Each structure stands twice: as structure tokens, then as C-alpha cells.
Amino acid sequence: MVLNQASLKRDGVQDYVSLRATAIVLALYSVFILGFFIITPEVTFEVWQALFANTLVKVFTLLALVSIAVHTRIGLWQVLTDYIKSAALRAVLQFFLYALAFAYVAVGLFVLWGA
Predict the structure, then answer these.
(1) Which of 107, 25, 33, 10 minimizes the C-alpha distance to 63?
(2) Residue 11: what pLDDT?
(3) Looking at the domain assignment, is residue 98 inside a domain?
(4) Are 69 and 104 in contact (CB under 8 A)?
(5) DSSP states of 25-92 as a string?
(6) Assigned domain for 44 exists
(7) 16 is in an annotated binding site
(8) How far is CA 31 from the centre of its chain?
(9) Is residue 2, in this structure, part of any structural domain at all?
(10) Residue 83 annotated as binding?
(11) Total domains present in the chain
(12) Within a domain: 4
């Protein structure tokens, strides 16, 4: 079997690994945020702002945002190809839903790094 290493198309193994990796990142981020709420006696704006002033928290949040986008892209592709049989309708839905996912990441970036 000949493998084309220059191909930009993804395959099932890449999707599988990407989904698992992004799920781990999102689980770790969820545990981090939950832990913050558990150990912080009173969450005020100043405490929240101090948390996100830390560069490591910003980077971890950015990683979580990108993980959400990748996870969403693969999940939407799988669901839409399974349930939407019309290729034209599927293409339109994928475009708008991918654009919405990108917008969420873009807004997250502006909120995270803009202030």
C-alpha cells in the first residue's frame, strides 16, 4: 500500500487522535476552572481579573478555545455527513457553523488578549 505523505486530506486516525487530544485539554481546563471556584472563597471581579492576568492562564484558555474549535469542526462534520444527505445543504450548513465556531474563537481571543 502506498501512502501519500504530502496529502492535506485528513483521515479517520487523525480525527480520532484530534478528538481525544482536544477532549483531554477541555477536561483539564474544566477541572482547572472548577478547582478555582472550589478553592476561592469569594469570586469577585478583581479575583477573576487577577486570575486571567496570569499569562499561563491566558495560554491555557487560548488552548481550550482552539480545542473547542477543532472538536466542533470534527464533530459537526461527522454529524452533518451522517444526517444531511443533500451535499449542497450540508455545504451551506458547514460553512455557517464553521464560521460561527471561528467567530467564537475570535471573540474569545479579543476578550482574552484585548484587555
Answers:
(1) 25
(2) 77
(3) yes
(4) yes
(5) HHHHHHHHHHHHHHH-S---HHHHHHHHHSHHHHHHHHHHHHHHHHHHHHHHHHHHHHH---HHHHHH
(6) yes
(7) no
(8) 16
(9) no
(10) yes
(11) 1
(12) no
Place of cell 487523525: 14
Give the H or E element holding residue 2: none
CA distances from 100 to 17, 24, 29, 47, 103 (A): 24, 23, 22, 30, 5
pLDDT digit string, tens, across residues 17-42: 999 999 999 999 999 999 999 999 99
Cell of 25: 485539554
- For residue 9, the surrounding DSSP H or E stretch is none
Residue keyed to cell 477573576: 48
Q: Radius of gyration (Cα) for the chain, nearest Å?
A: 18
Q: Which domain holds residue 95?
A: 12-114
SS3 101: helix
Q: Give this prediction's pTM.
A: 0.81
Cβ atoms 17, 23 nearer than 8 A: no
